[in-house]
Design a protein that fits this description.
The chain is mainly alpha-helical. The chain folds into 2 domains: 74 residues, no CATH class; 142 residues, no CATH class. 24% of the residues are buried.
Length: 222
């Protein structure tokens, strides 16, 4: 019966490397935090309700009774690594949304006669709009729709990238790298520099996917 209880509670001890002969306080607490016999003492901290003392067992506790509700509650709390990787994923994928949004704004500014643009926008759409104006003397509604459709590729990429899609990240980075090279050809140094920074942040988001998927697999198996 005791072995079954021990087997049912493996996650809190999975990250603890017990290389000492005596168990540490942290290792004891891995059991105590989800034991029905736990009790909080203002001076000693978490103690055993049966002995009124801090845990001093080795390997297993004969009085351990798992609290399934508390265990589920603790298991649902994400680790610091998961929170950090989730933030990287969010920040990386969010760049695709910014690229789409600012590119659309640049197109609309040009359509309404403005002469300013955001450096985070796409050089591909600006190149297209320049060619379009050269052919038709103005950027009309059809040109705007085509330009927004080109930018819309990044909206689709954003949708899939935030759902842990590595291909979406890779495709987005390839397109944005080509876009950066177009800006380099036209010697738009500021926009080129911003593109490089954005690519670096997107790459960090790509790196987080494997760790997040690994954590999801572990959680699912448990």
């Amino acid at each position: 019966m005791l072995n079954q209880r021990k087997k049912s509670y493996t996650k809190p001890l999975a990250k603890i490397k017990n290389q000492q002969k005596r168990m540490t306080r942290e290792e004891h607490l891995a059991y105590c935090k989800i034991c029905l016999n736990r009790k909080m003492d203002m001076e000693k901290g978490l103690i055993c309700n049966l002995t009124s003392e801090v845990a001093d067992f080795e390997e297993t506790c004969e009085n351990f009774k798992e609290d399934p509700i508390k265990k589920k509650e603790l298991d649902s709390i994400p680790s610091i690594e998961v929170l950090e990787n989730s933030a990287k994923l969010h920040n990386g994928s969010q760049w695709f949304l910014w690229i789409f949004g600012l590119s659309v704004i640049n197109t609309l500014i040009l359509f309404f006669g403005g002469n300013v643009s955001f450096i985070f926008g796409l050089g591909i759409t600006q190149f297209f709009e320049g060619v379009y104006i050269g052919l038709f003397d103005e950027l009309n509604l059809i040109g705007v729709i085509i330009s927004i459709a080109i930018s819309g590729i990044f909206l689709v990429i954003w949708h899939f990238s935030r759902n842990l899609s590595k291909p979406a990240f890779i495709i987005g980075m390839i397109i944005y790298t080509i876009d950066a090279l177009i800006l380099l050809v036209f010697q738009d140094w500021w926009s080129f520099g911003v593109h490089i920074y954005a690519l670096f942040m997107i790459f960090k988001g790509l790196q987080s996917i494997d760790e997040l998927k690994k954590e999801q697999t572990i959680t699912h198996n448990e």
